[in-house]
Amino acid sequence: DYYDLGLIQNVSAGEVLCVLTPPTEGIPGYTVKGETIKPKPGKAAPVVPGPNTSLSADGLQIISKINGQFEFDGKKVIVNETYTLNQDVDTSTGNIKVAGNLIVRGMVTSGFTIEANGYINVTGVVETATVTAGKDVNLQGGANGSKISCGGNFKCRFIENCDVFVRGEMKAEYILNSNVRCRRNLKTEGVISKIIGGTCVVMQN
Questions:
Q1: What is the gyration radius of the CA atoms in the chain, in angstroms?
Q2: For residue 205, what pLDDT is reported?
Q3: Which regions of the chain are under pLDDT 50?
């Protein structure tokens, strides 16, 4: 399934990320002659809470402080508030869904979905895809033939043949043949600064 590759592990605030087992004394062994070999005492696991995590009162659990993405670097248990993807969203990544914020340093290719409870920032073009964010959306390259839902403010370079819903304010250089619903203000600015075709429903001026 190229749309669900399971690359991201989302966690919630208060979720137990890791359970630490205290070291034990060990069990004696025996030589071939029947002589007792004393065990070496166990050592505590070298795992410590990292950013956005905390240790439980009994010291045996590492707990997430925030909604985010789980990461283990070999020593520290970490929860990242922002997930950064340094490539296009395509068959090598599948759909991207994060509990925190999302930065895509590339484009979102046709047929794929990106979703974040926080903000979304895409440096490339969103091409016939779906973008859903609980907070702000910033599309530096614009969008074509896509469905976009934004819980905060929405800023983009252009919108062409898209279906857009924005709870906050919206700014674009131009909007072409798109259906736009904006709860607050809508503004076009830049060299072209036009709305051509489609429909725009705005709650405020």
A1: 25
A2: 64
A3: none
How far is residue 138's CA from residue 161's CA, in Å, rounded to a whole number? 18
The pTM (predicted TM-score) of the whole model is 0.85
pLDDT for the residue 73: 87
* CA 155/CA 180 separation, integer angstroms: 13
pLDDT score recorded for residue 171: 96
Query: Are the beta carbons of 122 and 141 closer than 8 angstroms?
Result: yes
